[in-house]
Amino acid sequence: MKHRTIFSLGISLSALLVSGTLLAAPLDPERHPHPQSAQAVHEAEHTVDHAWEVYHRAALGGTIASPAIQVEIEDHLHEARLLITQAQEAAERGDRQTVKHLIDQVKIQTTQAIKGSEEHKK
What we know:
This protein is 79% helix and 0% strand. By secondary structure, it is mostly helical. It has one domain (2-118). It is elongated, with a radius of gyration of 16 Å. The two termini are 19 Å apart. Mean pLDDT is 82; it is low at 16-25.
């Protein structure tokens, strides 16, 4: 019971920290000088948010396969957030190619996070 309580507290703290932390302000595609890049980043932000939701549901439900996989999932999700920030900066500069590359990397990270979140205990 003790380990489960600590695990639950860790998940709750992680959710609180993630929900309260803003790495960069969201882009407004309609007012952005490079609307296509801004829209692509905006959509990628939703992808990251979805991956976090899938992870939190699995973590709170206690279905994540192992603590090691949980750490891997969190690493993927944190990397995705970092990549979003970099993509926002690239969009501000009008660097469409870098935006595309970074968003492709975000998709890889979120896919891995979701895959790990859906891997249940055996």
